[in-house]
Amino acid sequence: MIKANNYKNISLTKHSGIATLTLNRPEKLNSFNTEMHQELREAIDDIAFDSETRALLLTGAGRGFCAGQDLSDRAVSGETNVAPDLSASVEQNYNPLIRRITQLKMPVICAMNGVAAGAGASLVMACDIVIAAKSSSFILSFAKVGLVPDSGSSWHIARAIGLPRAKALAMLGNKLSAELAEQWGLIYQVVDDEILITEAENLAAHLSTQPTEALANIKQLIQTSFDHSLQEQLERERAAMQHLGKSHDYQEGVAAFLDKRAPNFKGC
Question: Which of 2, 74, 86, 258 has the CA that lies 20 to 30 A from 224?
Answer without folding.
Answer: 86
